[in-house]
Specification:
With about 150 residues, this protein is an alpha+beta fold. It contains four helices and eight strands; from the N terminus they run ααβββααβββββ. It has a single domain (about 10-150), classed as STM4215-like, CATH 3.30.2000. The longest helix is centred in the middle third of the chain and has 17 residues, at about 85-100.
Length: about 150
């Protein structure tokens, strides 16, 4: 029996793919892309990449549902004159377009992935930090087909 090889960490691969696109980085306006939580305080656009679902009947063929969520603070905090809903929307649509075109992306000698758009973006607001600290966000979900290249 061959050694068990861990499945590639797809949120990190999606993050890397997004950051390789100059237009996406420009739309970030100095913000960051992480696979972790949204910073507090949020002062610049921030994009989270999270695995929100995982299915597959074969451990070598995975379908991972990834949510890419741009988070944008109010203009008086970010000092970005653009409406924060527009900033979040532009990041989300760019991410969705990039992922829809991601085909046969090689991770390593063992893994490769392709993606397709599932749904989103939708416009939402997070008032959980207080009405004076509203965060605007626009999640988009993509399906990633992860496969093992060799066994």
């Amino acid at each position: 029996m061959s050694a068990i090889i861990p499945t590639a960490y797809i949120p990190g691969e999606v993050r890397k793919h997004l950051l390789a696109d100059a237009e996406f980085v420009r739309l970030l306006r100095g913000g960051a892309v992480t696979c972790r939580e949204v910073p507090d305080p949020l002062t610049k656009p921030h994009v989270t990449v999270k695995a929100v679902g995982h299915q597959g009947g074969d451990p070598r063929l995975h379908r991972v549902l990834i949510q890419i969520t741009p988070w944008v603070p109010r203009p008086d905090v970010s000092h970005i004159p653009e409406d924060p809903d527009v900033t979040a929307w532009n990041l989300a649509t760019r991410a969705g377009e990039l992922m829809a075109r991601a085909k046969n992306i090689i991770v390593d000698d063992t893994h490769a992935w392709s993606a397709h758009w599932v749904d989103g973006p939708i416009q939402l607001e997070d008032k959980g930090r207080g009405l004076d600290r509203i965060i605007y966000y626009a999640p988009v979900r993509i399906g990633v087909h992860l496969r093992r290249r060799t066994i």
